[in-house]
Write a structure and sequence with these properties.
With 160 residues, this protein is an alpha+beta fold. The chain is built from 5 helices and 6 strands, in the order βββαβααβααβ. It has helices at 46-55, 73-84, 91-97, 110-123, 131-154, and strands at residues 2-8, 27-29, 35-37, 64-72, 107-108, 158-159. The strands form 3 sheets. Strands 1-4 form a two-stranded antiparallel ribbon. It has a two-stranded antiparallel ribbon with strand order 2-3. Strands 5-6 form a two-stranded antiparallel ribbon. Strand 2 and strand 3 form a beta hairpin. Helix 4 runs antiparallel to helix 5. The structure holds zinc ion. Zinc ion binds next to loops. Zinc ion binds at residues 9, 11, 57, 59, 63.
Length: 160
């Protein structure tokens, strides 16, 4: 168990997929920006859809532009405790990213993502004397920066 985060690509919407989906009338993009399939429609062939999706573009098997394991439960708890010492500087991170180490199925929209940018700037000045802990903080900082950059580029949420 742990905390994963991703931003989905926009290859399907931009017409940059290698070939059209097998049943395009059953394909849609959900609020998280993920290409989805109306699997319960009459005649829907889920296997054909997922086969197409995994090969549709150069990104992850379900269209992840970028995806990271932010940490296991212990690592997220460590980061939460560390940042709680300056809670006012990290309100979005603490309430919507690392509130726990297992949330999934929720997302962070573009407005919240704009608020995250100064929080990641503040994170750059957070250090630990322990080199391993410090590297953990730096990795989290790099991952969050990558997720934010990708989300702003394709104008899609960060999905957990
Ligand atoms: Zn793609």
């Amino acid at each position: 168990m742990g905390l994963d985060a991703a931003v989905y690509c926009d290859c399907y919407e931009k017409g940059r997929v290698r070939k059209p989906p097998p049943q395009p009338e059953l394909v849609y993009v959900d609020a998280n920006g993920q290409v989805c399939f109306k699997w319960d429609a009459a005649g829907a062939d889920q296997n054909a859809f997922y086969g197409w999706l995994s090969e549709a573009c150069d990104h992850g098997p379900t269209g992840e532009l970028i995806s990271y394991r932010l940490g296991n439960v212990a690592r997220i708890a460590f980061l939460r405790e560390l940042l709680s010492a300056s809670a006012a500087q990290f309100s979005v991170l603490l309430s919507k990213v690392i509130q726990d180490g297992t949330h999934a199925g929720d997302s962070l929209g573009l407005v919240d993502i704009e608020h995250l940018i100064p929080e990641i700037d503040c994170l750059r000045s957070v250090h630990s004397r322990d080199p391993l802990d410090d590297e953990m903080i730096r990795q989290f900082e790099r991952q969050m920066s990558g997720l934010i950059e990708a989300a702003r580029r394709v104008k899609k949420p960060i999905v957990f």
